[in-house]
Write a structure and sequence with these properties.
The complex is a heterodimer of chains A (about 280) and B (about 290). By secondary structure, chain A is mainly alpha-helical. Chain A has 13 helices and no strands. Chain B is globular and about 75 Å long. The chains are: A mainly alpha (about 280), B mainly alpha (about 290). Chains A and B meet through helix 1, helix 4, helix 5, helix 6 and helix 7 of A and helix 1, helix 2, helix 4, helix 5 and helix 6 of B.
């Protein structure tokens, strides 16, 4: 099949050049960060460009141990996993009811979730913070986890409600008429059918929680509790003040790596998830 | 009969999620409107009701107005860069160029990274002493242009916009790509039969059919710009003086300036700005959508 013509040739050539330049400089910056993370600060200050003389790993040891990025990695990993499971499970339950059960205030309930996608967080940060302080949910992981689960709901409910609506109703009708309880019908029949939607939503939630910065900045005070985004920010502020760039870059690489690897393996699924995610507005 | 059975699910399935949502979103969001009418510092047990005083204060507060202006500038400048770039990149990617997967990887990967990563990366690029940008300029013999990019409003604004665009571009390329792939091939065949040049096809077929995407893109970009916080907060190390935006000013007011009431009032203003903007774009652009 011949190629579609979306645009004129000249425009395309200029764009290809531009795109090449963009990708090369983007890649260049990343390569620079990676090889600088193997240099010593003395090497770095004598030349920003030069390659490291030896492949020293001491910056990584420093970032992982002394700057505690290693600890933050585990904090982030377990919080992201639990929060994703929690949000996806709760939102699948909510979405099923909103998609299938007719009850008064159904539209309103759906709207309550949808509203959170449109309201800027800056509106309610102070009331929420004060409320969490009253509930003793500041400066601990439980508070962060509950908040992340709650923050994942609106988008997941929105996507999964749409997803459940596309599933045929005959299956559950048959199950219910055969005497299966609605509870069982949901868990054994409907939830497995929603798997593609659940996966998309899980990936989206996981990435969001993994990267979340604002609430970990606001809620966490003790360094031991930090997530990676928060840890990297602290490292950046401290290290750039002390001019210890190479350690900072090692930390930066450690923080970037998991998502880059995830993306390499799940490129198509993630792009699809991002499309759905971007269209949420 | 079936509905009666299904209604038994409301309690066990709907309530847990809804409760969490109410506690962590609905209650604080409603409370915000009350907070915004008080002069609460965040320290005392009482909240003093002062009516609309905070709102009057905001619109006479030079810093707030500057923050508002910066947000608008980020929105406009960023859009002028992100719109043509993402459209053209999508057009090229839609034709499945060589190294397609690799190109997509480079363009999309930044959207997955934490804002903090973007801030640290670009903060290092713009650093006046060791920064990649100044070093590149010096290597090219343009050393005279080397400068502390984040030190002055005039350079910090475009510099941070570029970082925002770098992080956001992938999302917009994906949106345009999805839009392009929906356009039926027959439209181009018909246009070709009618003797339309590639330019004409681009202007009269591709662009009008992407109008929906453009509308989403405008809203998405501007809303993100209005809410900008983390990138600017981190890249300026907590002192966004030269490039204060609404997000950083609100954060400062509540968490450092002991003006929770005032900070929340500014949050309420942000809420209305976003709301009015979305409605406006919807109204202005809706009727020009082409149905196909």
């Amino acid at each position: 099949m011949e190629n579609r013509q979306y645009g004129p040739i000249l425009l395309k050539i200029v764009t290809i050049l531009l795109m090449g330049l963009y990708c090369l400089s983007s890649l260049g910056a990343l390569v620079w960060v990676v090889y600088t993370s193997f240099k010593s600060n003395t090497e770095f200050f004598s030349s920003t460009w030069a390659l490291p003389a030896t492949l020293r790993l001491s910056n990584y040891a420093y970032a992982w141990e002394n700057a505690e990025i290693g600890l933050y990695f585990f904090n982030t990993a377990y919080i992201s996993t639990l929060a994703t499971c929690g949000s996806v499970m709760l939102s699948a339950m909510v979405a099923y009811v909103l998609a299938r059960v007719v009850f008064p205030l159904r539209q309103f309930t759906f709207f309550l979730f949808l509203a959170a996608l449109m309201v800027p967080a800056m509106l309610y940060i102070f009331p929420l913070f004060v409320q969490m302080r009253h509930m003793h949910l500041t400066n601990n992981h439980l508070g962060l986890l509950l908040l992340y689960i709650a923050m994942g709901l609106p988008f997941s409910v929105f996507v999964l409600t749409g997803f459940f609506r596309t599933l045929p109703t005959q299956l559950e009708e048959a199950a219910l008429i055969d005497g299966a309880s609605p509870w069982k019908t949901f868990w054994m029949i409907m939830l497995p059918l929603a798997k593609p939607g659940l996966i998309t939503v899980s990936i989206f939630n996981f990435i969001n929680v993994w990267n979340e910065f604002f609430w970990s900045l606001v809620l966490l005070r003790s360094g031991k509790l930090y997530t990676m985004a928060r840890g990297l920010q602290t490292l950046f502020w401290n290290m750039s003040a002390e001019s210890r760039w190479t350690e900072l870059f090692a930390g930066l690489v450690i923080v970037m790596l998991p998502l880059v690897i995830l993306f390499i393996f799940l490129q198509d699924r993630i792009t699809e998830g991002l499309t759905v995610g971007a269209l949420k507005g | 009969m079936i509905q009666r059975e299904l209604r038994k699910l409301i309690l066990p399935l709907l309530v847990p999620g809804l409760l969490l949502h109410i506690v962590f979103f609905v209650v604080p969001a409603v409370n915000a409107f009350y907070y915004s009418l008080t002069s609460w510092s965040g320290l005392t047990p009482y909240k003093n009701f002062i009516g609309l005083t905070n709102f009057v204060r905001a619109f006479t507060d030079r810093t707030f107005l500057l923050a508002l202006e910066n947000v608008v500038l980020f929105g406009i400048l960023g859009f002028l860069i992100v719109f043509p770039t993402s459209l053209l990149f999508a057009v090229v990617l839609a034709d499945k160029p060589p190294f397609e997967r690799f190109l997509k990887f480079i363009i999309f990967a930044p959207t997955l990274l934490s804002v903090v990563v973007t801030a640290v990366l670009w903060g290092s690029i713009y650093n006046p002493v060791i920064g990649l940008l100044n070093e590149t300029l010096r290597a090219l013999g343009l050393g005279a242009y080397a400068q502390p990019w984040l030190g002055r409003h005039g350079t910090a604004l475009p510099a941070i916009t570029v970082a925002m665009v770098w992080q956001g571009l992938g999302t917009y390329v994906i949106l345009f790509l999805a839009g392009l792939q929906k356009i039926p091939r027959s439209f181009y065949e018909a246009a070709e039969l009618d003797g339309a040049s590639p330019w004409q096809q681009f202007w009269h077929v591709t662009l009008p059919l992407l109008w929906d995407v453009v509308q989403i893109l405008v809203v998405l970009w501007v809303i993100n710009a209005i809410q900008a916080f983390a990138l600017i907060f981190v890249i300026t190390r907590g002192y966004p003086n030269v490039i204060e935006v609404m997000g950083t000013y609100i954060y400062w007011a509540g968490f450092q300036g002991q003006s929770v009431g005032y900070g929340t009032a500014m949050g309420v203003i942000m809420f209305f700005v976003v709301l009015i903007f979305s409605l406006l774009v919807n109204r202005l652009m809706r009727r020009e959508t082409v149905e196909y």
